[in-house]
Design goal:
By secondary structure, this protein is an alpha/beta fold. The protein has four domains: 4-175, Hypothetical protein af1432 (Orthogonal Bundle); 224-408, 3-Layer(aba) Sandwich (Rossmann fold); 417-571, Rossmann fold; 623-696, no CATH class. It is 48% helix and 14% strand. It has 29 helices and 24 strands. It has a seven-stranded parallel beta sheet with strand order 5-6-4-7-8-3-11, sandwiched between helices. Strands 14-15-13-16-17-12-18 form a seven-stranded mixed beta sheet. The longest helix has 27 residues, at 144-170. The chain is globular. It starts with a strand and ends in an 11-residue tail after the last strand.
């Protein structure tokens, strides 16, 4: 037979090369044969005369992945063939639900043509192949929690192997860009030199003395085996560099492949990635999130597809949607997550409504896929204990973790730089007057509406508004200006939403925080006297405006109220955080919003696609993206109009100028010709809808203009 996988590439060559790559990927999680078998079978449907005719003429397109998946079932049986068959069917689309679909596809194999091809060309000793498949799958099946992740990993090995072989054949110049990174020896040497310089330049004082002690204590434990670790360090304790020092040494000790740093917010990622690029070089750090523009570096785009760079800095959204969504593009990078050190920064930000699938996935990554997970935070959540709610629902916790800092209580006392007091009820007018008199003050509130209302009330020479009503490009510009004002000692009042809390490097003398969860209050306090330069403790005040918290903050506020002491002064310690999170999780209504347990309880008959549709790390229900006229957004809109359709690069650049707004409001703006749709993207078309310094325009009551 003279079949082709694509014009000019013999099918048998493609199958064998894909199988070879997939086999190497599968070795990392003990399934080289299953991955190789999936590689050998994935395009067998192309051996049919119908597909070969389509390839030559381009007419009467026919499928090949479903037929290839059905062939896997025929060769290896329904019990042993089902798991790799999921992967085969998914390699051009997504992992399917199990609804008997693959069984039905066998009816479409009209003769023995494909089976004969497979038995003669690919599996001449079919009995031996079946035994090898059964041995690997038996091992996977015994670990029921990780079975669905095993399928995803197998699919990942196949998808990436297939794409890499196609790339090598069709675009050898692009393929050559891969793998051109520094060695781990160079990574470690660059980090050593950077730390020597930083420690030599560090000013004497308590903060830097404590940071060095934390650094040394954490790295002493880096020779430990893969597992769960915690880095419980107060804000300003140097966990960005400390966690990297641990990861580098731990990776070497255990022969691991890469380091993945996952962060909840884009603002923190950009700041952290900049630090790592200074240390390791921009070409050795993959910054992967929605706002990142790869610019002129051609190696970034290929690396973002499969995460084959040594150091990845990404978002929780990108990481967990890759691990739990079903699309081929999500799946492709999974096998490169295996055998990695995964640092989860600000671990308390993991969404509580999805803790069941997230914790199940983390347990499986450590138990079965060679990973280490480091939970980093000033406010480590209580994730190591199973929680049983009053309705008998259960959240199974993580296995016991090794603390990288043995005595976080003493550390919290040593790094205490603020005094936190609750002011009780305040009217917006009273609070605005206090802020204006404070000189340099940051005030964080719970909603965009409150943020704008309070900002308008503040009478200060220089005031800044920061909220999600503003596009990321303007927020970044304003943050740079705020840092400059603080550096110069200028009076400035900033009224913001919680987007400035986690990881944003600001250092105010005084911080006000509307009552929220204890973790949010602690994060807000981390923006006060951050470097410990004040002679006295920085002042942090919590207050209550009498507003009903948004549903997402209700449980946190209720738990915080129960923990407020009679004298109103909160002393943030790890013991307080443990009490808070036990209360908080006990009040939480939902741990498994996407029904992970239901969709995968009958494995191997899993419902990947249905779960994927229900699982979204960010709940933007009722919200829609709008591109606003700020910066060079107008030029990008013209570029979109000329192209007629957005490519991935253009969509990424639009993220800098995008604000999420209510869908109902967007409809009103469309009807009023304030917004138009260009190639499927909603863009601002009338001036005044976006107001620099305030964002998407609000009415006098803090609501969006309806026009």
């Amino acid at each position: 037979m003279n079949q082709e996988a694509r014009p000019g590439q013999p099918l048998i060559d493609h199958l064998r090369k894909v199988a070879g790559r997939a086999e190497e990927f599968g070795k990392k999680f003990g399934s080289p044969f299953s991955c190789a078998a999936a590689g050998l079978l994935h395009d067998c449907g192309k051996a049919s005369s119908e597909w070969q005719a389509y390839l030559k003429t381009g007419k009467n397109q026919v499928s090949h992945a479903p037929e290839s998946a059905a062939l896997c079932l025929q060769l290896f049986g329904d019990l042993w063939g089902i798991l790799p068959a999921y992967a085969i069917k998914a390699h051009h689309s997504h992992l399917p639900d199990w609804d008997g679909d693959l069984d039905m596809i066998t009816d479409r194999l009209r003769d023995r043509q494909l089976r004969t091809f497979a038995e003669e060309e690919l599996f001449p000793d079919l009995d031996a192949a079946r035994k090898a498949m059964q041995a690997e799958i038996r091992q996977a099946v015994t670990k029921s929690e990780s079975l669905q992740l095993w399928v995803r990993m197998t699919a990942s090995a196949l998808v990436d192997a297939d794409r890499l072989d196609a790339e090598a054949f069709d675009s050898p110049e692009r393929s050559a860009l891969r793998g051109q990174y520094a060695t781990w020896d160079e990574f470690e040497e660059n980090f050593r030199r950077y730390m020597e310089r930083k420690q030599a330049e560090a000013a004497p004082g308590t903060v830097n003395t404590v940071r060095r002690a934390v650094f040394e204590e954490a790295t002493e434990k880096a020779d430990g085996k893969p597992g769960f670790y915690t880095l419980n360090v107060p804000t300003g304790g140097g966990k960005t560099l400390c966690s990297m020092a641990f990861a580098l040494k731990h990776r070497r000790a255990n022969g691991m492949d890469r380091i993945i740093l996952s962060i909840p917010y884009n603002a923190i990622i950009e700041q952290t990635a900049d630090v790592y690029k200074q240390i390791f070089g921009a070409g050795n750090v993959l910054e992967h999130h929605s706002n990142f523009d790869p610019g002129d570096n051609p190696a970034y785009r290929p690396a973002a597809e499969n995460w084959d760079m040594p150091l990845i800095v990404t978002t929780n959204v990108q990481l967990f949607e890759s691990l739990l969504k079903s699309g081929a593009s999500n799946l492709r990078k999974l096998h490169n997550i295996a055998n990695s050190v995964i640092i989860l920064d600000e671990a308390q930000m993991l969404p509580r409504e999805h803790l069941v699938p997230i914790l199940a996935t983390l347990r499986a990554l450590v138990a079965d896929f060679g990973c280490t997970v480091v939970l980093c935070s000033a406010t480590i959540p209580a994730l190591e204990e199973s929680i049983v709610r009053s309705d008998n629902s259960r959240l199974e916790g993580l296995p016991p973790a090794t603390p990288l800092v043995a005595d976080p209580e003493t550390l919290a006392k040593a790094l205490r730089r603020t005094r936190i007091r609750h002011l009780g009820k305040r009217s917006p007018e009273e609070l605005a007057a206090e802020l204006a008199a404070a000189g340099q003050a940051l005030c964080i509130v719970n909603t965009r509406r409150t943020c704008r209302q309070l900002y308008d009330l503040v009478d200060a020479p220089k005031k800044i508004h920061l909220s999600g009503s503003m596009c990321p490009a303007e927020r970044r510009k304003l943050l740079a200006g705020i840092r400059e004002s603080l550096k110069n000692g200028e009076p400035i009042v900033v009224v913001a939403t919680s987007l400035v809390e986690a990881g944003v490097d600001l250092d105010f003398k005084t911080v006000y925080r509307e009552l929220a969860g204890i973790d949010s209050i602690a994060q807000a306090a981390g923006r006060c006297n951050r470097e410990g330069r004040q002679k006295t403790l920085g002042e942090v005040f919590t207050f209550d405006l009498g507003n009903k918290p948004p549903p997402s903050l209700q449980a946190g506020c209720n738990a915080a109220r129960e923990l407020l002491p009679d004298d109103g002064e909160l002393v943030m310690t790890p013991a307080l955080y443990r009490k808070y999170f036990k209360l908080y999780y006990g009040m939480t209504a939902q741990f498994d919003k996407a029904n992970f347990i239901g969709y995968f309880k009958d494995a191997p008959e899993c419902e990947f696609d249905s779960f994927s549709a229900d699982f979204n790390m960010i709940d933007n229900a009722g919200q829609a993206p709008l591109v606003v006229l700020y910066g060079n957004a107008a030029e990008l809109i013209e570029e979109l109009e000329a192209a007629g359709r957005p490519d991935r690069d253009l969509l990424r650049r639009f993220q800098q100028y995008t604000v999420n707004v209510p869908k109902e409001q967007l409809e009103k703006w469309r009807d009023a010709a304030c917004v138009r749709t260009v190639a499927g993207i909603d863009v601002q078309s009338a001036p005044g809808l976006y107001e620099p310094g305030a964002g998407v325009k609000l009415d006098a009551n803090g609501g969006l203009w309806s026009y």
